[in-house]
Amino acid sequence: METAGGGLLLAATDDPLAAFGHDPWWVTLIKSVVIFVFLMVCVLMMIMADRKVMGRMQMRHGPNRFGPWGLLQSLADGVKLSLKEDIIPRGVDRTLYIAAPMISAVPAFMTFSVIPIGPEVEIFGLVTPLQLTDLPVAGLMVLAAAAMGVYGIVIGGWASRSPYALLGGLRASAQVISYEIAMAMSFVAVFMYSGTLTTSGIVEAQQPIWFALILFPSFAVYLVTMLGETNRLPFDLAEGEGELVGGFMTEYGSMKYTMFFLAEYVNMLTVGAISVTFFLGGYHAPPPITMVWEGANEGAWPVLWWLLKFMGVMFLFIWARGTVPRIRYDQLMLLGWKVLIPVQLVWITAVAVVRMLVNEGAHPAVTGAVVVGFSVVVVASIIGWNRAVRRQRAAEAAEHTEEMRRMRETAEYGGFPVPPASAPHYGSSVPAEEPRNTPPASTGKREEVTGA
């Protein structure tokens, strides 16, 4: 129906997508520009917060030269990188080398288009939601965009024709495959409890209670996987400086390096916003506040609640980077395949069974028995896993003890592998030395050594 201002006001319906797809082009343009500016400003602030907060954690000063309290340090770094000479190494695949940073950055911006930041508001007489768009399969679109971002990293590593960059790209692809599975399983529990794949519907389904509380295992696994998805410490093995120089970014500089850097931080912002949308109630006020304040979700307050939750998740990124050391690559793969995925399989099965029983109206005793049964299985699995870990550690300790014993008893054992003198020199045309005759036994007389 028409409003007094000439705008279109949609009637309330049961369709969660009824409020989308009716905005004029200029409203869509305004939303797109606001999202882009918001992400760019958040990137600058996040880089500055990374340095300042970690500086305080490590009892040192962060940036304090450019701008008041160092607030313009991120802007100065961006200007410095943009003014550096753009060098393309000889022998690279120029097309893919140039396109890789853009392929990595674009999906991160796309994902933010389905994030609801607030309820419907009125803009120049037009009622529109504070969300660019929504889709019937918005949850799957989030996963697809997250998976597409790694293609830029892999292509950049391959196109650089450098062993360090190639290894970084391969690590990133294996890492994303491992952690994408656990992340998708975290979303499955959310989809089952909300009954929809739309992001706006998921937010509305959390009005009574947040999914982070009733689906805490999914939320905990998602917090781990979002660090792995964004290649942040302690999971930044794709660009490990101690092993791969710079990883997939080794051969990049100037604005291309800036694009990769931008993609990493925009990905952080995106997965943080997804955690707020899927697990922390979106723009709704925390339940204790709504119990004592009826107007907590009216006016501009929903946007403020969303920003506070968003800032809290961003602080978790900085906290993890400043306190948790980088793990080995085999530990990264072990955590993804042998811990997170099995835990998610058991948890999703339990959630599906309990949800089905509740929907079918089963007796609470039956539901409780199922919950107790799964709990027993989980406890037994944890006990068995602890025993397996203890046996493995005992075997490693015995192997280490045997290794040390052999090193003490045999001087040559465990030493540096030196090729014998009779072996040919690798990479040269020097033939192997003839075997030398065994020197005669000493007669006890002092022999004169000459140069002949």
UniProtKB/TrEMBL annotation:
<feature type="transmembrane region" description="Helical">
    <location>
        <begin position="265"/>
        <end position="283"/>
    </location>
</feature>
<feature type="transmembrane region" description="Helical">
    <location>
        <begin position="137"/>
        <end position="160"/>
    </location>
</feature>
<dbReference type="GO" id="GO:0009060">
    <property type="term" value="P:aerobic respiration"/>
</dbReference>
<keyword id="KW-0560">Oxidoreductase</keyword>
<comment type="function">
    <text>NDH-1 shuttles electrons from NADH, via FMN and iron-sulfur (Fe-S) centers, to quinones in the respiratory chain. The immediate electron acceptor for the enzyme in this species is believed to be ubiquinone. Couples the redox reaction to proton translocation (for every two electrons transferred, four hydrogen ions are translocated across the cytoplasmic membrane), and thus conserves the redox energy in a proton gradient. This subunit may bind ubiquinone.</text>
</comment>
<keyword id="KW-1278">Translocase</keyword>
<feature type="region of interest" description="Disordered">
    <location>
        <begin position="397"/>
        <end position="452"/>
    </location>
</feature>
<feature type="transmembrane region" description="Helical">
    <location>
        <begin position="96"/>
        <end position="117"/>
    </location>
</feature>
<keyword id="KW-0472">Membrane</keyword>
<dbReference type="GO" id="GO:0016655">
    <property type="term" value="F:oxidoreductase activity, acting on NAD(P)H, quinone or similar compound as acceptor"/>
</dbReference>
<feature type="transmembrane region" description="Helical">
    <location>
        <begin position="364"/>
        <end position="385"/>
    </location>
</feature>
<feature type="compositionally biased region" description="Basic and acidic residues">
    <location>
        <begin position="397"/>
        <end position="411"/>
    </location>
</feature>
<protein>
    <recommendedName>
        <fullName>NADH-quinone oxidoreductase subunit H</fullName>
        <ecNumber>7.1.1.-</ecNumber>
    </recommendedName>
</protein>
<feature type="transmembrane region" description="Helical">
    <location>
        <begin position="25"/>
        <end position="49"/>
    </location>
</feature>
<keyword id="KW-0520">NAD</keyword>
<keyword id="KW-0874">Quinone</keyword>
<feature type="transmembrane region" description="Helical">
    <location>
        <begin position="303"/>
        <end position="320"/>
    </location>
</feature>
<dbReference type="GO" id="GO:0003954">
    <property type="term" value="F:NADH dehydrogenase activity"/>
</dbReference>
<dbReference type="InterPro" id="IPR001694">
    <property type="entry name" value="NADH_UbQ_OxRdtase_su1/FPO"/>
</dbReference>
<feature type="transmembrane region" description="Helical">
    <location>
        <begin position="181"/>
        <end position="203"/>
    </location>
</feature>
<dbReference type="GO" id="GO:0048038">
    <property type="term" value="F:quinone binding"/>
</dbReference>
<keyword id="KW-0830">Ubiquinone</keyword>
<comment type="similarity">
    <text>Belongs to the complex I subunit 1 family.</text>
</comment>
<dbReference type="GO" id="GO:0005886">
    <property type="term" value="C:plasma membrane"/>
</dbReference>
<dbReference type="InterPro" id="IPR018086">
    <property type="entry name" value="NADH_UbQ_OxRdtase_su1_CS"/>
</dbReference>
<dbReference type="Pfam" id="PF00146">
    <property type="entry name" value="NADHdh"/>
</dbReference>
<feature type="transmembrane region" description="Helical">
    <location>
        <begin position="332"/>
        <end position="358"/>
    </location>
</feature>
<keyword id="KW-1133">Transmembrane helix</keyword>
<keyword id="KW-1003">Cell membrane</keyword>
<feature type="transmembrane region" description="Helical">
    <location>
        <begin position="209"/>
        <end position="227"/>
    </location>
</feature>
<keyword id="KW-0812">Transmembrane</keyword>
<comment type="subunit">
    <text>NDH-1 is composed of 14 different subunits. Subunits NuoA, H, J, K, L, M, N constitute the membrane sector of the complex.</text>
</comment>
